[in-house]
């Protein structure tokens, strides 16, 4: 059973200045591969945290290093076979073994300042749907004593931060104004969420077997699952070395790896700006559910006008009409809707072209800010996955519903099919 509180939309700022009654139990999951010196530095920094040691669990997950890493007493070590770059599987392995109420993910070469855990765990301890990303800064730490205080060593050896990431946090006011593409600002090297929410969303997608991508896929899935995205700029962890995106800019192999990551993301994240412009993704952006139609002709007009207005949608129709649409794979049988950003419910068949602009505007707007659903007359409900997930958790609406008094008439059994197709009615 979920405990804690939630907020409207993404309004984590309503919890500013609020602290948990007691510090939460935190499981820190550190992914490692052949980086003993970096791991030593990170574990030393975790030993200096202001978060109570008695309420902190540290789990190192080794991704198949030839020799197991050395860890001090009190740190759990888990290992998995070397089957390529499997950071996603390593994080899942650590999360499955964790006992803390809050999960905090770090990479072995990402060294937290002393207040890091306290600041990262605050929001997930208050609001279980909170997903917090810290500030990952960069420094040349190699060669320094592993126990050198990183809050001083980092600034003295600082390297540039990615400007696009800093701009993203600034433009979204530290993700307070997050939208459907804000997943791009979530990085798993400095990430925290409640264990309850991680289990509800599901773990990282283990098909990602190269550097990057698995955190964005997970963050987008979390967003659809009702996540409250927040950036904690005062929760600083120092990455040893430059940002990956700033290295080897002319390396064809690096560009190929980035392309492979982008192709995987385009297939699983259906939102505009991530999917192809014409190609469909495996996960649809929009699902439209037709409840009933008085005739095959009415069903045809309804589904055709829906897809003319929303060509990236998948339309679910009653079984008796599925045979009309065998040539178009965007039309499926009614049933459990696949994961989608928006669900549009049509209780009865309507002709959508007269409300196409209003429908497209509503589909773009729901789920962002505090708008969760739009009602167009009595015939159309546009509902965001975020609002639906939050409603299922708390038993009440935590997003607003906008009602547009649009006059929409259901189609009768004779919708004038020939005139609709020919353009004269």
From TrEMBL:
It holds the Pfam family Glyco_transf_7C. The keyword Glycosyltransferase applies. One of its GO terms (molecular function) is glycosyltransferase activity. InterPro entries: Galactosyl_T_C, Glyco_trans_2-like, Nucleotide-diphossugar_trans. Residues 183-225 form the Galactosyltransferase C-terminal domain. It comes from the Bacteria. Belongs to the glycosyltransferase 2 family. This is Glycosyltransferase. The lineage of its organism: Bacteria, Bacillati, Actinomycetota, Actinomycetes, Micromonosporales.
